[in-house]
Amino acid sequence: MESILRLWPKEENRMKRIDTAIEGVYIIESDCYGDNRGWFMETYNQAKFRDLGIDTVFVQDNMSYSAQKGTLRGLHYQRGEHSQTKLVRCTRGIVIDVAVDIRKGSPTYGKYVTCELSAENKRMFYIPRGMAHGFLTVTDDVEFQYKCDNLYNKESEGSIRYDDPDIGIDWGSLLNGIEPVLSDKDKIAPTLKECNADFIYEKR
């Protein structure tokens, strides 16, 4: 893979938005500059995000650690006024990140997109409100970080089964025959048809 590092001295850091098959879900790439000491990159810049057409204001940062390869977290969302936009990235190891459109009336309702995030590729995944989100660890010892535009609210939590057949995420090929490591809550999550999501699609 071509190195993402650029040598110092650097010009102004640039950011790039890559659209996906779901409206509003983006892959974000930022220039990374390095020398014999290491490297530097911007992971968030409000002005540059606005130049990309993203005006989200983030209010909470979270970080999770997954010890074991095959750990599957999701699919999660928050309802109503507590819904969240997320900007996620992997700072140690590799994950396959998933966003599922659960906005009723959306032309891509029930569809999903995936993005590989890793400490090496340094990509970020922008997931707007109205999506269910989850990820699968491809390596052991994964550190995962994300910014949210709304505070966590336990009463508004929602979840959808990771293996809902109506969504059809191909976890099997990603798991390569191993059983996923799931939380007790995710083991009993409802399907998309059964869940209490209340998102309505609004054309941009």
Q: Would you write up a description of this structure?
A:
The structure is a single chain. The chain is mainly beta. Helix content is 7%, strand content 38%. It is built from three helices and 14 strands. The chain has a six-stranded antiparallel β-sheet with strand order 2-3-11-8-13-6, with no helix packed on it. The protein has a five-stranded antiparallel β-sheet with strand order 10-9-12-7-14. Strand 2 and strand 3 (26-30) form a beta hairpin. The protein is globular, with a radius of gyration of 17 Å. It starts with a strand and ends in a 17-residue tail after the last helix.
Q: What is the averaged pLDDT score? A: 92
Number of domains as seen in the coordinates: 1
Number of helices: 3
Which parts are unreliable, with pLDDT below 50 for 5 consecutive residues or more? Answer: none
CATH topology: Jelly Rolls
* Main beta-sheet strand count, sense and barrel state: 6 strands, antiparallel
Tell me the overall shape.
Answer: globular
The oligomerization state is: single chain
Question: Care to give the gist of this entry?
Answer:
With 204 residues, the chain is mainly beta.
